[in-house]
């Protein structure tokens, strides 16, 4: 092993972009987005905070890199499900995107606040647009559908993670809704309360995804 690749005895491993990103994702898993600060990240890496700015000029740059890393493998999942059915491929991609966000604590919050343009994120976008263009949708329709699918999936997952992984002291959203409806005169909400207060977010996601696909079919 060369002298440059062996850290001096008693010193932490050499700081680099990859190690910084891995540590940031570990901190996200342990403590959530609100607790992830550049100072805390520097402490975990045993470096001064200023050293981080060599790789990430701002915390937003760090979050963008984290969001890009979360998207690894999403486009591949869609390619593996290539059965010639555009609607099936669209569903597969949306499901893979949701799964990627759910794999990380506050994953949807991280992703929603960024505009990653790395190969993972652009690969997802290119795959979906390509599926739709191949199915006969216009370039404009394909591009707008990309935004629609992404916004629906990220927005859904934001609500899902907020309900299932509330911050310390966070409210029990289903219980609050049940109490509020029961305390007022909302007969239509009362009729659907079991669904409205359900934590079966997969069923809710699949219902919304089905509406989206049905709407696209109606435009063809």
TrEMBL record:
Pfam families: TetR_C_1, TetR_N. SUPFAM superfamilies: Homeodomain-like, Tetracyclin repressor-like, C-terminal domain. Residues 14-74 form the HTH tetR-type domain. Gene3D superfamilies: Homeodomain-like (1.10.10.60), Tetracycline Repressor, domain 2 (1.10.357.10). Residues 37-56 bind DNA. PANTHER family: HTH-TYPE TRANSCRIPTIONAL REGULATOR RUTR, TRANSCRIPTIONAL REGULATORY PROTEIN. This is Transcriptional regulator.
